[in-house]
Amino acid sequence: MSDAPQPYDPSTEGARMRFEGRMSYIDYLHLDEVLHAQAPLSSAHDELLFIIQHQTSELWMKLAIHEIVAARDAIKDGRMRPSFKMLTRVARIFEQLNGAWDVLRTMTPSEYTTFREDLGESSGFQSWQYRAIEFLVGNKNASMLQPHSHVPEVVELLQVHLETPSLYDEVLILLADHGVDIDPSVLDRDWTQPYQPHESVRAAWETIYRDPEAHWSAYELAEKLVDLEDYFRRWRFNHVTTVERIIGSKRGTGGTSGTGYLRRMLDVVLFPELWDVRTSL
Ligand code: HEM
Ligand SMILES: N[C@@H](CC(=O)c1ccccc1NC=O)C(=O)O
């Protein structure tokens, strides 16, 4: 017998070591499905990175949708505090998605071109969860339903998000319910259209930012929204920079101009008056 210390046996402190007939970690998380869902089409070493990067992003997007919808419901019911918690989580999810670009950035153009052709015309442009997030935070665009016309359930789901007031719409309705003077045209509009900035909203935020003590909840909510948009903008910027680094100015597999299209999306402003108000403070 050697005198070397034996590896520690956690069963001595009660760790369960057998799972016949019991729910295990693998069962609860359905890991058999998750870990068998990677099916590279090429023999390229980097395709697994590409697939996992997108699949994990889609999982985080699923959680982001869950949180944004719940935050919007809470705001609709006047439950501000729970909404803060959820909006903070959404910003952290975007931070997580932003960090993930550092992994993908390790893929060079030479590596990507070894399997890019295998992607056909598929593209992140067809991510319905991404489109749902855009609609939830107010970047409405009915044309974006079209790439999903081959999946009626997805069109139906996106149509609901298109027609429902966005997170920002509900925030403005809540402010008005609390006696803040907001123009009625902002509070009852065609929700399928992108939000148009209104002077009454800028003035309302100015009142709030000039005296935070008097309007603490609205002030805190405003900062949560700015945070969310800040992280969302970083995601867009990381995307376009990574894309330029990997494919230069090639057209996208989704058919757009590529970086030209993505750069245009950098101009999207979700909560315009919250940015405008900074100038007048
Ligand atoms: C090699 C890495 C990547 C390249 C070269 C790339 C390239 C592109 C391009 C060129 C577009 C424009 C649409 C098109 O014509 O295809 C696009 C859109 C998009 N990509 Fe990526 N992408 C990459 C990684 C990712 C990752 C990791 C995600 C995360 C899910 C993602 C999500 C999206 C989304 C959601 C859009 C639609 C954006 C919008 O409509 O505003 N992409 N991508
Ligand atoms: N649009 C990319 C392809 C691409 O990135 C992609 C392809 C399939 C699944 C997800 C993708 N990611 C983001 O657009 C390209 O033009 O190379």
Automatic annotation (TrEMBL):
It catalyses: L-tryptophan + O2 = N-formyl-L-kynurenine. Keywords: Dioxygenase, Heme, Iron, Metal-binding, Oxidoreductase, Tryptophan catabolism. Binds 1 heme group per subunit. GO terms for molecular function: heme binding; L-tryptophan 2,3-dioxygenase activity; metal ion binding. Substrate binds at residues 50-54, 112, 116, 253. It comes from the Bacteria. The keyword Metal-binding applies. Pathway: Amino-acid degradation; L-tryptophan degradation via kynurenine pathway; L-kynurenine from L-tryptophan: step 1/2. NCBIfam families: trp_2_3_diox. Homotetramer. PANTHER family: TRYPTOPHAN 2,3-DIOXYGENASE. This is Tryptophan 2,3-dioxygenase. It comes from Euzebya pacifica.
